Amino acid sequence: MSKTRTRTTNQYRCTECGWTTAKWVGRCGECQAWGTVEERVGGGSAAVKTSAATAIETPAAPIASVDVTEATSFASGNSEVDRVLGGGLVPGSVTLLAGEPGIGKSTLLIDLAASVARENNMVLYISGEESAAQVKSRAARIGALADNLFLASEHDLSVVLAHLNQHKPRFLIVDSVQTISSAEVEGVAGGTSQIREVAAAIIAAAKAANIATVLVGHVTKDGSIAGPRLLEHLVDVVCQFEGERHGRLRLLRAVKNRFGPTDELGCFEMTESGITAMPDPSALFRSTGNQHVSGTCLTVALEGQRPLVAEVQALLAESATPQPRRAVSGLDNSRVSMLLAVLQRRANLPLYKDDVYVSTVGGVRLSEPATDLAVALAIASSKTGHTLPGGLIAFGEVGLAGEVRPVPGASRRIQEAARLGFTHALVPAGQEISLPAGSNIRLAYVSTLAEGLELVFASAGKKSSNQN
Question: Where is the RecA family profile domain (predicted)?
Answer without folding.
Answer: 70-219
